[in-house]
């Protein structure tokens, strides 16, 4: 989804889109041995050009269908394995039917997101964009402050808070991988959220850190923003390391307290 959003952002071919594509694709140059070759191969030229734009257009179109296919695959697995138990329930019951329970719940969520999306599209289309993107792309003029779209700001803050390009890419990859590995540490299979009070607190601390990274990622690269960014990156890894290391232990202790209290 992030790749599809990025490729679509490049298509208007404005100043911010052009330089955003240059920065993001240039990240691959940090890979050892094949990095520089890979960047030129993706560009199809010595820099980001119309050839790159044509390739991004095709990929943007194809990846949209890939997202639809993965969504359908998710529904297939949901029907095959069933859903979890009802929210806040402590007992095993039969699986909940997909219709009307999930259809109703998901429809409400979809309509809420559609209203928010329509509000920005119809009334405030420029609120989440950058005015420099209305300027035609020019490889000879670099914007004073290159800022990606809001959904990339946390990762952008991580990338630019580290001076070494290779280390910045490694840390950014570690952040994504750390989140992906969290489900592998959950072997308790506790569906009741009341048994995970401490875990929920740690989760919301993680969310707050992620939002803070997004905010500081939109600010100029100067003091005190750069100092706060680096502190947040360190704090993020402290929180996520604590979360992964003591994940099951915290839940076990909380569950014992709940059982003893009853």
Notes on the structure:
The chain has helices spanning 2-10, 15-26, 35-43, 50-81, 98-122, 153-160, 165-181, 197-217, 225-245, 247-261. It folds into 2 domains: 1-148, Up-down Bundle (Cytochrome Bc1 Complex, Chain C); 149-262, Helix Hairpins (Orthogonal Bundle), CATH 1.10.287.980. The protein has 262 residues and is an all-alpha fold.
Secondary-structure class: mainly alpha
Please report the number of helical segments. Answer: 10
- Evaluate the radius of gyration: 22 Å
Q: Helical amount among residues, as a percent range?
A: 55-70%
Oligomer: single chain
Draw up the topology in text.
Layout: H1 2-10, H2 15-26, H3 35-43, H4 50-81, H5 98-122, H6 153-160, H7 165-181, H8 197-217, H9 225-245, H10 247-261
Helix pairs in contact: 1-2, 1-4, 6-7, 6-8, 8-9
Output the keywords.
262 residues, mainly alpha, globular, Helix Hairpins, 10 helices, 2 domains, Cytochrome Bc1 Complex, Chain C
């Amino acid at each position: 989804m992030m790749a599809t959003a990025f490729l679509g952002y490049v298509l208007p071919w404005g100043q911010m889109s052009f330089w955003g594509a240059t920065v993001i694709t240039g990240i691959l140059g940090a890979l050892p041995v094949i990095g520089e070759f890979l960047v030129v191969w993706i560009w199809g030229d010595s820099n980001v050009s119309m050839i790159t734009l044509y390739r991004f257009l095709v990929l943007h179109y194809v990846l949209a269908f890939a997202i639809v296919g993965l969504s359908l695959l998710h529904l297939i697995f949901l029907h095959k394995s069933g859903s979890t138990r009802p929210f806040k329930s402590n007992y095993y019951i039969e699986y909940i039917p997909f219709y009307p329970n999930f259809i109703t719940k998901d429809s409400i969520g979809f309509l809420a997101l559609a209203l928010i999306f329509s509000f920005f599209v119809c009334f405030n289309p420029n609120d989440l964009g950058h005015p420099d993107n209305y300027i035609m792309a020019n490889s000879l003029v670099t914007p004073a402050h290159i800022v990606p779209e809001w959904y990339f700001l946390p990762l952008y803050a991580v990338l630019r808070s580290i001076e070494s390009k290779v280390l910045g890419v490694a840390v950014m990859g570690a952040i994504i991988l750390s989140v992906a590995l969290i489900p592998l540490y959950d072997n308790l299979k506790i569906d009741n959220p009341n048994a995970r009070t401490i875990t929920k607190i740690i989760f919301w601390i993680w969310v707050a850190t992620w939002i803070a990274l997004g905010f500081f990622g939109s600010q100029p690269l100067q003091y005190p923003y750069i100092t706060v960014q680096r502190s947040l990156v360190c704090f993020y890894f402290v929180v996520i390391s604590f979360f992964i290391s003591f994940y099951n232990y915290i839940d076990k202790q909380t569950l014992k307290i709940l059982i003893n209290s009853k």
